[in-house]
Amino acid sequence: MTKSSNLTQDNRSSLDFTEESTPPQIRGVIFDMDGVITDTIEYHYQTWQQLADEEGIPFNREANEALRGLSRRDSLLKILGSRSCSEAKIQEMLDRKNRYYLEFIQNMNSDRLLPGVEKLLNELRAANIKTGIASASQNVHRVVERLGIGDRIDVITNVYNVNRPKPAPDVFVYAAEELGLLPKECLVFEDAESGVEAALAARMWVVGLGPGDRVGQAHIVLPNLQGVHWSDLLLAIQSLQG
Known about the structure:
Blueprint: H1 9-13, E1 28-31, H2 41-55, H3 61-65, H4 72-80, H5 87-105, H6 117-126, E2 130-135, H7 140-147, E3 155-158, H8 170-179, E4 186-190, H9 193-201, E5 205-209, H10 212-215, E6 220-222, H11 230-241
Parallel strand pairs: 1-2, 1-4, 2-3, 4-5, 5-6
Helix pairs in contact: 2-5, 4-5
């Protein structure tokens, strides 16, 4: 396990710990969905590409990467750029894209869990750690159902439950409240820069999954969850608290 080379004093002070205080016990883990628990990035790319092709809007995989962590509406507005559309047209395109996406996820099952996720969820349950999902996707409940992990997730939230999407901290703060925990008692797993920013702003511990140039402000940076154990994560966090 590798600590983030980008750990800074700002990261540490964002949790409001002092040398005289005892760091709070981590009692909850909050996961982002796409790119952390399952990889639906390809589904999103295919559905956005279909919509863009139908509307004659240039779009490619690189443009799709820029949508990571954004809500559906914010993604569409980014794709549209300076193009002017009525609110009715925007809503129609959002509904159309969602319809395409729902068709894709009908065939999802537990095989679509990313490596290491199921074992970590089992370890968290055995350790009596509360678990939540805070996603940018409005379809997160359906995806959890298709993946068969609902029995190991205590709270499911998305950005539509709050006023501001990531990188605002709202969805993570809301998830902590639903879990009955303080933000500083929560550890977040994120794969998007906006999500890492949101979790830090919520004053939570953050594990960034992916390249450092995308998630490098997280307290711990890992390539993925394969081979990751809860006991190792706790040790890594304790070393940062020292």
